[in-house]
Design goal:
Blueprint lengths: L2 H5 L3 H4 L4 H14 L7 E5 L8 H5 L3 E6 L2 H8 L9 E5 L12 E7 L8 H11 E13 L2 H14 L5 H12 L4 H7 L3 E15 H9 L11 H19 L5 E14 L2
């Protein structure tokens, strides 16, 4: 069992990308890559399929890889039966078991920080892309009020032993290699886009429930007894800071894309 197996059933509801927003992002991506009916997509770290579900429904060839069988199962459950244009592979998404020049588009979303050897992974992406293909390095930008809420939690978490060391470990993985410089060195052209902005609303109570369910990475490594204490303290803080657990927190999210065109 890995962490994502544990949160697979609540993953979609605890994130802020919804299916209608994903449809609009898909419109943007299809125009960006000049898609034809034959355009093929690969998403390493596909999870529950939030990012590529619109492509599958529109008939494009989609391959997804994920280390979590439970996350893939959540993706499968979005169909009455698995369509022939969707292939899901249960394996470590850091390694791409495909022939050279296999895909027109490779996209990753909030995934690179989990790759142990980022240079080898980027080499793999460059290898499996067809000439003229696109690598799209994407992320959903956390809505500011949710980021503020998370920072309040982090401040309490930091008082407990071990949290800072774990944070440093994760950040080190993110900083291992500069993706932009890597693709420039390969002669790729690049562009940055905000594909979509949208409003996200949650009550304080909802967000507390998400945190209690350990839906986010910053909750992964905390021992159960310590986590229970942290959440009790955090809820008390929220009651004082927001005055009510029914307070609605609203702000804008963004879907960002760094697009690299393979020469």
């Amino acid at each position: 069992m890995n962490y994502y197996d544990n949160i697979a059933q609540i993953y979609d509801q605890t994130r802020w990308l919804t299916e209608p927003v994903a449809e609009e992002v898909a419109d943007f991506i299809l125009e960006l890559v000049c898609a034809t009916p034959e355009t093929s997509f690969l998403e390493p770290g596909v999870g529950t399929g939030l990012n590529v579900l619109p492509f599958v429904r529109r008939g494009y060839s989609v391959t997804g890889i994920d280390i979590s069988e439970e996350m893939l199962e959540q993706f499968r459950q979005k169909f009455n039966e698995i369509p022939p244009n969707l292939k899901l592979i249960h394996t470590n998404a850091s390694h791409l078991p495909f022939l050279d020049n296999s895909f027109d588009v490779v996209l990753t979303v909030h995934m690179l920080h989990a790759v142990s050897d980022l240079r080898a992974f980027l080499d793999d992406i460059n290898r499996v892309l067809k000439p003229g293909g696109f690598y799209l390095n994407c992320q959903w930008i956390t809505p500011p009020v949710r980021k503020e809420f998370e920072d309040y939690f982090r401040a309490i978490l930091a008082k407990y032993e071990g949290s800072k060391q774990e944070s440093k470990r994760i950040n080190a993985a993110i900083q291992e290699i500069n993706v932009e410089e890597y693709f420039y060195s390969k002669g790729c052209k690049s562009n940055y886009f905000v594909a979509k902005e949208w409003t996200v609303k949650n009550t304080v109570r909802e967000l507390l429930r998400f945190f209690r369910a350990r839906a986010y990475g910053l909750c992964w490594q905390v021992p159960d007894e310590t986590f229970h204490k942290i959440m009790n303290e955090f809820e008390e803080f929220c009651l004082q800071h927001y005055n009510s657990l029914e307070e609605v927190l609203s702000s804008e999210a963004k879907f960002e894309i760094w697009a690299y065109r393979v020469v």
